[in-house]
Amino acid sequence: MLLVVEDDREMRSLLCDELKDLEYRIIEAGNGNEAVERVRETTPSLILTDLRMPGGGLGYIGRLRTIAPSCPIILMTAFGDPSVRETAQRFGISAYLDKPVRMAELRASIKQLLNDQTGNGSQTEGK
To answer: Which domain holds residue 100?
Structure first.
């Protein structure tokens, strides 16, 4: 299961449409607080999240990491700079992408992280 967290409804819809063919169930959240609740309900295989949104920020990344310590997190932001990237990496993000996100780069990152997670590149039941 992939969790897509983005406060811009159109961008979230675009991301979900682009990721459908990865054959993972996709769940959505429109802000950081909603994302934390989704992760508490069920740990996704991967979290794709915006940084600057209601309930977002670096503290939000820390909360996600506390709740789901081994879940890969891909962070997307249009407001990144080297200090934001460095701090986010200390919180344990798995990948950092600047907006506008290149879909090919995003898909490659997701596939790589999910393959690393399964250990052999095969997808498992319950995804």
So the answer is: 2-117
Q: Supply the pTM of this predicted model.
A: 0.90
Give the N- to C-terminal CA distance of the chain in Å, as an integer.
5
The DSSP secondary-structure symbol of 29 reads E
Our count of domains for the chain comes to 1
- How far is C-alpha 109 from the chain's CA centre? 10
CA dihedral 36, 75, 42, 19 (to 10 degrees): 130
pLDDT tens for each residue of 40-92:
999 999 999 999 999 999 999 999 999 999 999 999 998 878 898 999 999 99
Residue 123 lies in a domain: no
* Per-residue buried b or exposed e for 63-83, using 16+ beta carbons within 10 Å of the residue's own CB: bbbeebeebbbbbbbeebeee
